[in-house]
Amino acid sequence: MHYLNIELNGIDENGEEKKYKLSDFQGRNIIIYFYPQDDTPVCTQQAHDFRDSFEELSKKAVIIGVSKDDIKSHKEFRNRHNLNFIMLSDRENKLKSAFQEHSKYITNLHRGTFILNKTGEIIKYWDKVDADEHIEEIKDFIKNNNTFD
Fold it and tell me: What is this structure's pTM?
């Protein structure tokens, strides 16, 4: 699970810059979603869905959004839309490639979500996300999976 130790620049829930590794969150479930670009229509809708569901989801897991955008772009996106979750800048696609490599069936991860359990194992992933329904799919999975009790 080498993806757990890839270090990336990010911003926390308060917009403060930090370096993160997914291993920092061991002992907690993680919802990590990859999206193409800050401030595009579908990516903004998806970010709003995570923002609006943060209170419910954050009781069960850490929420992390990842794109190739730099920290400056993430901060502007966060501020413009009042986002409240961790955002990572994967400029060189290191994390994205590691997840794609680990999930052998994904040949091109454009927009996808992974759920990791408390030990860092991928227990669910979606590689073809319909942004209109995706947040409900995540909530349903969490509600129906005893990992989150």
Answer: 0.93
